[in-house]
Design a protein that fits this description.
alpha+beta; six-stranded mixed β-sheet; transmembrane helix; Mammalian cell entry protein; transmembrane
């Protein structure tokens, strides 16, 4: 009877210790973290290095941990990571999440950053019942995403380098180097000629500069001559042309004023002058006849009539 009582006592003590330990564990894991907030992050990059319990930091300060990492069969290009952070963590609009490595251990963590003062908090639940924090590619994610493309480019570059150093291209490169060597030797041999050509070029350039300066002086002299001699002559010529123009205008006015008198002269005086000329012509003819008579018969011929010849009868 006493042994049975001891076993019951021991069992009760052990059971009580188990209940106390279980309560303590629950208090550490559950009761103490009931105020944490959960968020989902959908990564399109590899989440290698993350695991359940990985650290979550905000601007470098630890604020939470990773609760769950799950694949999404309906969206296989994404990996859903659920995190829990302290309730006073400022998860505001503009906050982004990135994956960053921790040293050289191969372990990764989630970094939160980019909160803007005065922005509203992220509270809208997503398709899985908790708010969603957008992602921003981190250095590790970008490296992992670009690794296949980088390897492909390195492979292509290696193949092209192999083609470049093929035997045929090596012979071509050798020929090019040989030609360059010959060309450099020819240039070295013609060094004095090239130097002389450069010297003549300098002289020609100098002479061209002198000629340009002389042309400038000639142009200045020509401008001076124009200012001193030609321009006064042009001024006098302009004055003469203006005077001639005024004279022509005066002559035109005089002709316009004399035009009525000329018209009257043509209409009246001209016929009378014609009649006078005809009368003078007839008088001249008469005087000519009188003079002829005077020459042939003297004054008597003029005053008397002409003597008739004597009549002699025919026998």
């Amino acid at each position: 009877m006493e042994n049975r009582s001891n076993h019951v006592l021991v069992g009760g003590v052990v059971l009580a210790l188990l209940v106390i330990a279980l309560a303590f564990i629950v208090w550490l894991a559950g009761f103490h973290g009931t105020d944490d907030k959960q968020y989902d992050i959908f990564f399109k990059t590899s989440v290698e290095g993350l695991s359940k319990g990985s650290s979550v930091t905000f601007a470098g300060v630890p604020v939470g941990k990773v609760d769950e990492i799950a694949l999404m069969p309906e969206k296989p290009e994404f990996v859903r990571v659920r995190i829990s952070v302290k309730k006073d963590t400022p998860i505001l609009q503009g906050t982004t999440a990135t994956i960053a490595g921790v040293g050289f251990t191969g372990v990764s963590q989630i970094n939160l950053e980019g909160a803007v003062r005065g922005a509203p908090p992220i509270t809208q639940p997503g398709e899985h019942g908790v708010p969603t924090i957008p992602t921003k590619p981190g250095a590790l994610g970008e490296l992992l995403n670009s690794a296949p493309e980088l390897l492909e480019r390195l492979s292509t570059l290696t193949e092209r380098l192999a083609d470049t150093v093929s035997p045929q291209n090596q012979r071509s490169i050798t020929g090019i180097l040989t030609n360059l060597d010959r060309l450099s030797g020819s240039l070295a041999d013609r060094g004095p000629e090239i130097a002389a050509t450069l010297a003549e070029t300098r002289i020609a350039v100098r002479q061209a500069g002198i000629a340009a300066e002389q042309i400038g002086k000639l142009a200045a002299t020509t401008n001076g001559v124009l200012d001193a001699d030609v321009r006064p002559v042009l001024t006098n010529l302009n004055r003469t042309v203006i005077s001639a123009q005024r004279s022509m205008e005066t002559l035109d006015a005089a002709i316009n004023d004399a035009r009525p008198g000329l018209q009257a002269f043509s209409a009246r005086t001209a016929p009378e002058l014609g009649q006078l000329v005809r009368d003078l012509s007839e008088m001249s003819e008469a005087l000519t006849a009188v003079a002829g008579r005077f020459d042939r018969g003297g004054a008597g011929a003029v005053l008397g009539g002409s003597k008739l010849p004597d009549y002699e009868p025919k026998k």
